[in-house]
Structure formats: C-alpha cells, structure tokens
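Z., the sequence and structure:
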Amino acid sequence: MSDKAKNILKVFVPVILYFAVAESVAVILFNLREQGILRLDGTLSQLIQTLIALPFVFFIFYRQEKRRYRAWHESQWAGDYPGRIRLSDLLLSVVLMVTGSYALNNFAELINITSFSGSYGEVEASFYSGGIVAEIAAFAVLSPIAEEILYRGVVFLYTKRTLGVWPAIIISTIMFAIFHMNLVQFIYAIFLGFYLGILMERAENLWIPIAGHAAANALSVLRAETGFLSMNNIGYDIYIGSAVAAFAVSLVLTVYVCVALGKRLNIVEK
C-alpha cells in the first residue's frame, strides 16, 4: 500500500470506526425498544451511543497526542507545549460559535430551509425528546467532546501534519458536515466546522473548540425547549435584526482569526 493510501486511511478509519460503533449500538437499542425490553427516547439513545463510541476514538487520539508531545519534547524549540488554555481563546470560541449558531438558526427558519430536508424533521423530533437535562448532557456535553476529539483531535491534527493547516481545516470541516447525514445539518456544520477548525489551529488546544461546540449546542437545546428566542416571542424585527448583528459579529471574528493565522503561518514558514 502506498504512503498516500495509508494517509487517507488514517484520516477515514477513525471516523468510520466511530460511526460503525455508534450505529451498531443504535440498531441494538432500536431492537430492544421494539421488543419492549427498554424504554428509551431519542435523546437517551444518543447519549448511550456516544458513551459507548467515545472510548474508541479517544484511544486513537491519545496515541496521536502522545506522539505529538514526544516530538515537541525531543525538539529544541523553547516555547510552551501546544495545549495551554488561554482565557482569550476560550471567550473567542464561545462568542464566535454562539453568534454563528444563532444567526444560522434564525436565517434557516426565515427561509424555511427545513422544508428541503424531510429527514431533518425526524432527527430534530428524536433528539429533542428527552427533557432539557438529558438533552444538555447528550448534546452540550458528550457530543461536543466526542465530535471534537474525532474531527479536530484526530482528523484535523493528522491532516495538518501531512498536508498543512488550511487543507486540514477544509477536510475536517467537510467530513464533519458530511457525517451529519442531512441537508440542514450539513449546511449548518459547514459553517460551524470551519469556525471550529480555525479555533483549534489558533489555540492548539482541543478544549477550546469543545467549549465553543458545547456553547452552540446548548443554545440550540435552550431554543428548542424554551422557545425564548423564537420569532413569536421576540417579534420579526428583533428576530431578523439580532440575526444580522450576530452574523456580523461572527464574520468579523472569523476574518480576525483567519488573518492572524495567516500572519503566524507566514512567520513560521520564513
């Protein structure tokens, strides 16, 4: 097998493994529900799937991170080991992801994009069926940890090492979007996946995109369960005005991070 084929496998295998385990668990849980052995809603099923699949991808990430640390330790570079958490990166991640998520959700509702994807309605109904506590645990805690370990911890870092930063951001974003399995979530994940990629590269710490991902998902859960940001509650003018403002903030922050990354990468190359 050629080196190129091996590199491709090292990117795709962890993703395929994660989804194979998760989907196998989903099938088992579905059969148990159908037979009346278990009574689980969609939220709890997702929670169990993630809990069982997470150790597999974490093991791959752990091995990769050990090699990364060893390479740094053996080098002559005198800086900090990539991984130090900075409050500025944490705040940037949360603000960028929350404003981006808020704007995208509002625009999606305004143009009724959900009508183009029948499967999204089924997914949404299943996901938001377990009560706010279970949904926060599943979608604002476990899912962000699992997905960021997979896409930014494994796919992004490995692709960065083999192809460079910008290809790694693009590839991890596309894979993140594709595996959401429906049109609405694909479009949503393309934007948020790009945000998460640039945040990962800026911070070089996996907890930064995890925090932003968790914040965005928590906002989605709160919107679905409380309706406090719905058009009916806040009115059309505020709804669209706040969406435009949130999008502007996310755009400015994205440009700022991309420009800063470009300058840093040029310095490193020189």
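The mean pLDDT is 86. Residues 236-269 form the longest helix (34 residues).

Let me know what you think.
H.
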